[in-house]
Prior knowledge:
The complex is a heterodimer of chains A (about 270) and B (about 425). With about 270 residues, chain A is an alpha/beta fold. Chain A has 7 helices and 7 strands, in the order αββαβαβββαβααα. Helices cover about 20% and strands about 20% of the residues of chain A. The longest helix of chain A is centred in the N-terminal third of the chain and has 13 residues, at about 35-45. The relative contact order of chain B is 0.18. Chains A and B meet through β3, β4 and α4 of A and α8, β4, β5, β6 and α14 of B.
Amino acid sequence: MRAYKPKDNVQKKPYYTDRFHKVPHVAKEAVESDEVFAADLEAIKAKFEVLDAYIQVGQMVVFIKPQDNYAVLELLRDELEYTQLSEMSAIDFLAEKNSFEVFYQMLSMNKVKRIRIKMNIAKGDTVNSVEPLFRSADWAEREMYDMFGIEANGHPFMKRILMPYDWHDHPLLKTYPLQGDEAASWYEVDKIYGKEARDIIGPELRDTAQVDRYDSERFARLGFEVPKGTEITGNEPKVTQEYQEDGGVFLIKEFKRESSTIIDDPQR
Amino acid sequence: MAQIKNRLTPFFENITFDREDNEMVLNFGPQHPSSHGQLRLMLHLQQEQIVKAHPDIGYLHRGMEKMAENMIYNEFMPTTDRMDYIASSANNYGFALAVEKLVGLEVPRRAKVIRMMILEINRLMSHLFWLATTALDIGAMTVFLYAFREREYLMDIMEGYCGARLTHSAIRIGGVPLDIQDTFISQLKDFLDKLPQNIKDYEDLLDTNRIWLMRMEEVGTVSTEMALSWACTGPMLRASGVAWDIRKEEPYELYDEVEFNVPYSDKGDNFARYRIYMQEMRESAKILYQCMDMYDECVKNNQTELMAHAPRYVSAPKLDIMTQNYSLMQHFVLVTQGMRPPVGEVYVATESPKGELGFYINSQGGPYPYRLKLRAPSFWHTGILTDLLPGHYIPDVVSIIGTTNIVFGEVDR
């Protein structure tokens, strides 16, 4: 019988886990332990529903409802001095919770504080674009769409940014395969020249460092040069060729291997 | 073999532009030498003036975030080298610090000092490289050669330390793998003693150079609002009037113990950025002098530890591994299975030479990160070209790309 492999998460799995391994957690502190964060949270709570909030590794994490994201970020920018959206993206929790976690990493330069706003959205849902608030969200939301397929409503140019426009699927999903299949390996050839050219072009050479010393079409050995295309199996020259034009070349001295010196001090 | 054109999906390059408004579309890159990597800019031109700019990236996309999800934490370290390959130790450090914060490691003091020295050397290397390539793009060949000569000294020092010149992997999670070599301090001192004169030489060549000033002054002006909105960091932000340096504001390692200034300007143009890069090199030198004193103190106080003591996450020193059975077992488990940080998440920002380099790690307790987001400064410094270029002329494009100091290893990741 084949071993069971989950389809909803095809990423690499640890090959061994100790039966007695107890998973520790990073400590979550109460928001009240920090004055600035507590005040910020109060301001958010006054207007919006907060699902969860805590401080982890010195940064406050606030879970909000997905429909509030634009308004919360506007509040943070205009009233709470979080003037920069450093980063935003998503995490794929489809296998566990059937949802994505979208996070907005905010920075306040006046308070020297960082907040992470998070929200859960179901598969297939869209988020409100925050591009009108922060221009940095323009590219960040495009990257999120490219990597997870989460579209941002109201974004001016919702296209892929890193992957080619005609790419299938979204690479950072946990269901995205780790290795390409037969069709993927012929992608460019099929696209540009057509399927019938596969035989002529041949499979892609994946080892870029490969050197075939008997292939005189594409490679040459310094000092053992032969005319291009020569069959050199067994009958290649045994000694180094010291090449020099007859009668010498103007201004160029003849190279004599025995009288050359090798410098081994890199500092000189 | 003829290329079958209609097999391609209609795409930008297959569309002909027959418009009556005399607008021309110019494709800049992705193989243009002054685009500093694989940047493709689609520029809409009215005569020589740009009316619309559309940066197109992704030509160097290697899926590092995906790779990270399928690697143990230590395995990912050499991959971070390939982000900002001009200052690769800065990436190594950002990742190491993020994991250390996640698992709560305390790095020994001597390792901290060595890390700071490596980071500042990397900053100098990056800034020298920036100066060299930008000057070359604008036509100053001499500055290019001078700056590369100085960078070569630094690369030799780094090579002596870790064996690599570009992709260092010189930092480990929990500390540094090696103590600095005997010649490190003396070589560095020699270099730093000459550096002020070198910087002065560059400035003498550039500061009053008419061509340089024409391409720099009042070109590519980024307002404070624009810089904040586009999440600009590093010299891009400091040139636009915000004195924000993470080393100063959220100090990591021993940056709170050293004295240095944060140069900033409120002009926001190319020239302001150029001045900031030059000034930052002087500040880096200042930090390095102080680091050398701190290192001497560590030697005097006999602080020899280089890696954090945390058997769950970090292998024991080699001597212990070779002599003690339990250390060997730990090492074996850490190498084959990898460390398993606690469940939780962390976002750690460090000041890389280009700006705020952030690592967001979400761990679900497994040996591989569940999600790792790389926040590379250059990504946003490329995005800002959309808003920055319109209104400028074609020759300014090259100098603006130059002063944004983007590196495509970290834009595309």
